Amino acid sequence: MAAKKTGTKSAARKQNIAKATAKPAASIAARDDIDIIALDLPPAELSEVMKAYFAKCDEKLGFVPNVLKAYGFDNAKLEAFVAMYNDLMLAPSGLTKLEREMIAVAVSSYNRCYYCLVAHGAAVRALSGDPALGELMVMNYRAANLSKRQRAMLDFAVKLTAEPYAVDESDRAQLRHAGFSDRDIWDIGAVAGFYNMSNRIASATDMRPNTVYHSQSR
C-alpha cells in the first residue's frame, strides 16, 4: 500500500511539473492583429492627413484601431469614416462620451457584432471606471442598474435597431420626458444609425478587433 501511495504522489508531482513548464496555449485571437478582415484589399497610399491621424492614434492609444486599417484600402472611404466617427462620438453633444459608447455597445449587442462589442465594450469600461458596466452593456443592458435617462436612451436606440418602422412620436416623447432635447434625440438616432452601419460592415468582412482591447480597463 505504501508503495502505491508513493507512486501516486510521484505521478502527481510529475504532472504538476509538466503543467508548470508547459507553454501557455496560444490565444484564440492571436491572429486578429494580422488577419484583420476576410477580404483581400491591399492598403492604399494614405493622404498626409490620414498618415498624421494614424500617427496620433499610435501616440495616444498605443496602437491604430483595426477598423481604420480595414478602411485603409480606400483613402476617401477612410476619411469619410473618420470624419463621421469624430463628429458623432467626440464632438460637443448633449450626450456624454460614455452615453454615446453605451449606445454603440447596446446596438452592437443586438446585432452581435464581435468587433464593436470588444472595442466599445472596452471604451465603456474605461470611461465609466466600472468593468462590470462594460460587461453588462455587452450582455444585456436591461440587467444593469441604469438611470431612467440611460435606460430610455438605450431602449430607443435598440428599438431603432430592431424595429425602425415601429418608432413613433410616443418613443420620442419618452425621450423628452427623460430629459433629452430634440437635438439629443437626433444624436441618439445618429449614433445608433452609425453603429448599425458599422456592425454590418464588420460582419460582412469578418473584421477583427485589436487584441489589446480584451485586457483594457479590467
Task: Considering the chains and any ligands shown, give keywords for the structure.
218 residues, mainly alpha, AhpD-like, 65% helix
Can you put this structure into words, describing what you see?
It is a single chain. This protein has 218 residues and is mostly helical. It has 2 domains: 48-89, Single alpha-helices involved in coiled-coils or other helix-helix interfaces (Up-down Bundle); 97-215, AhpD-like (Up-down Bundle). It contains 10 helices and no strands. It has helices at residues 2-21, 48-61, 66-71, 75-89, 97-111, 114-128, 131-139, 148-162, 169-177, 182-205. Helix 5 (97-111) packs antiparallel against helix 6 (114-128), helix 5 (97-111) runs parallel beside helix 7 and helix 8 packs antiparallel against helix 9. The radius of gyration is 22 Å and the shape is globular. The model has no long low-confidence stretch (mean pLDDT 92).
